[in-house]
Amino acid sequence: MTGSEHVAAPALEMRGITKRYPGVLANDRIDLDVRPGEIHGLLGENGAGKSTLMNILYGLAVPDEGAVLLDGQEVQIDSPADAIRRGISMVHQHFMLVPVLSVADNILLGEETMANAIFLDRTEAHRRIDELAQRFGFEIDPEAPVGSLSVGSQQRVEILKALYREARILVLDEPTAVLTPQETKEIFAVLRRLAQEGHSIVFISHKLYEVLEIADRITVIRRGRVVGTTTPAETDEEQLAEMMVGREVQLTVDRGESSPGEAVLKVDNLVVRNERGRETVHRVSFEVRAGEILGVAGVAGNGQDELVGAITGLRRVASGTVTLGGSDVTGHSPRAMHEAGLAHVPGDRHRFGMVMSFPLTDNLVLTDYYRAPFARGPVRDEAAVAEAAIGLIERFDVRTPSPFAAGSTLSGGNQQKLVVAREFSGDVRLLVLDQPTRGLDVGSIEFIHRQALAKRDGGTAILLVSAELDEVLELSDRIAVMYRGEIVAVVDGRTAVKEDIGLLMATGGRDRDGSPATGPGPASTTGSVA
Amino acid sequence: MDALVMFLYDIPLLGLLFQFGGYVISILPTTGPIFLFAAAPIALGSLCGLMNERSGIVNIGIEGMMLTSAFVSAYAASLMVASGATVGGDAPFGASTPLIVGVLAAMIAGMLVSSLHAWLTITIRTDQIISGTIINITALGLTSYLNQILSKASPPNAGTFQPFIVPADIVELPVIGWFINAILNQRPITLSIIVLVIAMQILLFRSRWGLRTRAVGEHPKAAETVGIDVIRLRYRNVILGGIFAGLAGASLALESAGSFQNNMTVGRGFIALAALIFGRWTPLGAFGAAILFTASEALERSIRFVPPPGQLGEIMIGIPLQVYGALPYLITIVVLAGFVGRSTAPAAVGQPYERERRH
Asked: How many Å apart are CA A200 and CA A212, to the nearest integer?
């Protein structure tokens, strides 16, 4: 193309990509070019068209118009296998690893090193993996089952997988979403190393400061169009957010002072076991007061799920007590808990927060359908349900064509707003928020954070559990750090330093006083793979 | 020595246990071959299940696949006899043309029924349990009905395969002689199970096919992203798995009974599934489980023919023989109820796979 300043052809160029789905223009003449050795940040809200664009690159979708060029040559990418052959690898947000297989087998899969026509040559494969791992400073045991590794290590396996296939173009989809700050730093070092060696990296993220830190150039997409391409030197978080959303966004909501009242939730010496009978919460005690937000920080799988389950009545308490508003509710049913003033936004909204096939109206009364005004005896009052639902949909700005549409027709952000609408309404004494903004875009996150703070200011006690450390830091009045089933520290939310909390999350703070962390390894990480 | 044995046998209650031990040791040389013979159809059924489940498809239709194959093999062999092929002869294992044709027909029948299962579960994405149930019910009804019609014409009988006779010198070797005999004194399909189980064990864990199959059964999407065609691999595995069910059916019809009888599988396909689970979805494990399940069958036969002497004999003969017949099923129930909690199925088993559609 004339007017191009590049000396060498870009490693990857996507030119005028247009992709229509029924009723949606997912990509509208998108141009993207990635130079050799460049880390290119790709920013956009959910539904902006990032995934469609990357699916086209990875051979999972065919563009209606436009061309993909590799090293200046136009190519037709037919399938993931084809993309891999051409040196394109993708590290998916949800790792594409088989937990029960070893690291080596996961890396080999699909690109097997063979001893003959039938059998694998694992010795040679291990040698190659060791060689690669050494070159990039990874410490990894090729024999270990992937399911036994930490999330950070699993991600390295994904990267090794790409390198094993001699990928020149590496696409990373939200690579830091599940990492601790330390792990993020480590992965950034790896990415810089890869770029130095001439690999081109597309870094997809919604964490603006991370993109600013790691990317050489940044392309922002909104509603299927490129809003602009810029460099970290020329821009800042506020400007990027505005480009992404199309309006000014307040990145950090002003939380104001909290005025905590008496304790609403008291947890005393709580012990909980997981499905396999292993004790994953060890004698945990804490309290949450009215009008404050207690944030629980921790790497996923350190007992948070079990803790939340025990407090909300979804899981059996092995020993210890849970007190809600002065009365002992240990072992009470979720319904009894709800009637005592507990509301719960569950971590997995599709499994526990809503019924995907039910209409919005029914989803909005899931906790109260059995009593007045939604039922008279055994008979439902459809009119009352519809009226309440329409009110909530309006109040919480749930975007839907109809209150009778199925929950599954909503976008992720709107599904979460639906759950929030149900749980935040009414007289709530204790609100348990489990990963309330997982997978949501900045606009929806802002909305939910505002609602949570409004609830706090109205005197509700809030327990916030999140693997997103930034979220915990932003909202919490106090922060409890959970590590291997214990609360290892409780710190003031206003004075907390991110790096300190990150270190506590990763080590439990135990290597400071010299005693090595003992006990079983970090609890199962397979959940993040599923 | 004899005095010691008599002393042990006379201990109240505990003595019975010693008597039982002594009895088992005394009958092993004669019943040994029965263990493998009875276990073979079950182990073959398990291998069929393994091919399915390791790649993520539940197969409770093994029973129906076996029954269909048994029917087809018996009547194919019969048809060959009717059209003038010679029976008997002195080929190894008594392998006459009708019998060989019967086995081949059974394998093809197994693959055809499996193709139906593959199409229903993979392409149509029917509930996999329903598909298996359809196969079981249809197989039972159709084979019984056709058998009723066809057997009226008194079709000629092709007989059965003959066992390999282990030379007497080897059988009489001390300590190991009876064991070699137990393994080798078999008809051909039964004999093949040893090779098949070992081959499958090695292939599953050391070959490219095995790695890909396990990956697809655990996390098909991960397999797809590294370029593996999940749909094709599942089709291939399910259809090839039908060969094992076919062999199991042929073993029942052409090694054991010599003809087709209604519902002649009597639940062996389900026991095969239980053996697969008990054996933790490995060929060797499933084979071991199949041997365990059928040990009681071997016991039943030997009690019928050579009841133990003395006190133990009185008790064992007192128990109706049907109880021994029911033992494999009872063990199956216990295994499925109790031990399975510790045995983990392939993670994606039972979930239809929908490829991300290319637009």
From this structure: 17
Each domain of chain B, given as residue ranges in start order, spans: 31-341
> Is A98 in Cβ contact with B215 (below 8 Å)?
yes
Percent pLDDT > 90 in chain A is: 62
The beta-carbon neighbor of A98 closest among B219, B224, B358 is: B219
Residue B86: burial class (beta carbons within 10 Å; 0-12, 13-18, 19+): exposed
Q: ipTM of the predicted structure?
A: 0.87
* CB spacing of B356 vs A161 below 8 angstroms: no
> Do A12-245 and A263-341+427-528 agree at the fold level?
yes
**Residue B354: its chain A contacts at CB < 8 A?**
none
Residue A21 and residue A27 in contact, taking contact as beta carbons nearer than 8 Å: no
Under DSSP, the state recorded for A60 is S
**Helix/strand/coil for A430:** strand
Which residues of A253-311 form beta strands (DSSP E)? Answer: 263-273, 279-289, 293-297
Please list every residue in chain B whose beta carbon sits closer than 8 Å to the beta carbon of residue A119: 206-208
Q: Which amino acid is at B286?
A: A
CATH class of B31-341: mainly alpha
d(CA A157, CA B163): 53
pLDDT tens column, B131-163 = 999 999 999 999 999 999 999 988 898 889 999
Integer Cα distance of A287 and A290 in angstroms: 10
Residues of A with Cβ-Cβ distance to B206 under 8 angstroms: 119-120
Query: Domain locations in chain A?
Result: 12-245, 263-341+427-528
How many other C-beta atoms can be found within 10 angstroms of the C-beta atom of residue B100? 18
Residue A57 has pLDDT above 90, yes or no: yes
CATH of A263-341+427-528, one of 3.40.50.300, 3.40.50.1100, 3.40.50.10540, 3.40.50.2000: 3.40.50.300
Task: Tell me if residue B17 falls in helix, strand or coil.
Answer: helix
C-alpha–C-alpha distance, residues B33 and B113, integer Å: 31
From CA A281, how far away is CA A320, in angstroms rounded? Answer: 11
* A101 contacts on B by Cβ (under 8 Å): 211, 214-215, 218
In CATH, which superfamily holds the domain spanning A12-245?
P-loop containing nucleotide triphosphate hydrolases (3.40.50.300)
> What token pair was written down for A381?
């009052």
Per-residue pLDDT tens over the stretch A424-444:
988 899 999 999 988 787 778
Per the CB < 8 Å rule, is A61 touching B224? Answer: no
Q: Which long-range contacts (CB under 8 A, 24 or more apart) does B275-279 make?
A: B275/B42, B275/B43, B275/B45, B275/B46, B276/B46, B276/B49, B276/B50, B276/B53, B277/B335, B277/B336, B277/B340, B277/B343, B277/B345, B278/B335, B278/B339, B278/B340, B278/B343, B279/B46
